[in-house]
């Protein structure tokens, strides 16, 4: 789904003495099928921005176009239910929202709310539990008898059960150990690719942004500070440092390597494995 954000402003507690401007003049176009990482310090406005994408927050000024739905400041009431079906949010610690007696009932809750029959919702639950890498036998268990990692997968399955076109992930790996983080990020990456999703990942990890995103948007004090392809963003190391961010360690290594070796390797590979391969190829070419 194509997303277009135009001159978006948001103030909390508008019109009260406690009014607080959280977003200023955000302009951002996200093409259908993009994997966008939204990065920035605590309080920079990331959560406020994503909550506009499925109508949880209303613009104070400006507009957001989500496919054919336009959400405008002062606009008329929209059909938010169908928008929320198309744009699913996985909140931080989504497992805290599990509440039903069984995993199956929890996953069926969303589709049933949209009028889907019990039989179809059951089939959906079986389909999405497999998508998140859990066995069907989990469906009859209580979500509260599962491990933390399994509970998170069940919560993600509940969002997938709505067949979203846009998946919005608010720090989906928060609180997981390093292995769990990689597993969940790999899961989102394969869901993105296999289901032609538009994915928006809020993260504090430049490493994850570099590994998975086609584009990176950097927020700072409620403004869109930088937006571009990872290669472009990582060429702006000084600008990133000014807002307390830095390029991933692999990019830092490559920049130092280029300075010291005199080899001017292009900034296109971001994982340790890709970078090692790039450096080794260049050394072979040079005859070392
Ligand atoms: N419900 C609220 N009421 C008033 N102010 C709020 C509310 N939620 C957020 N804010 C303020 O809006 C600004 C942006 O907050 P937001 O949560 O969007 O930032 P963030 O980048 O998502 O931070 P984090 O990385 O900590 O989640 C901050 O100054 C924050 O204090």
Automatic annotation (TrEMBL):
Its main location: membrane. Its EC number is 7.-.-.-. It holds the Pfam family ABC_tran. It is a peripheral membrane protein. InterPro entries: AAA+_ATPase, ABC_transporter-like_ATP-bd, ABC_transporter-like_CS, ABC_transpr_CbiO/EcfA_su, ECF_ABC_transporter_ATP-bd, EcfA2, P-loop_NTPase. Forms a stable energy-coupling factor (ECF) transporter complex composed of 2 membrane-embedded substrate-binding proteins (S component), 2 ATP-binding proteins (A component) and 2 transmembrane proteins (T component). ATP-binding (A) component of a common energy-coupling factor (ECF) ABC-transporter complex. This is Energy-coupling factor transporter ATP-binding protein EcfA2. It comes from Fictibacillus norfolkensis.
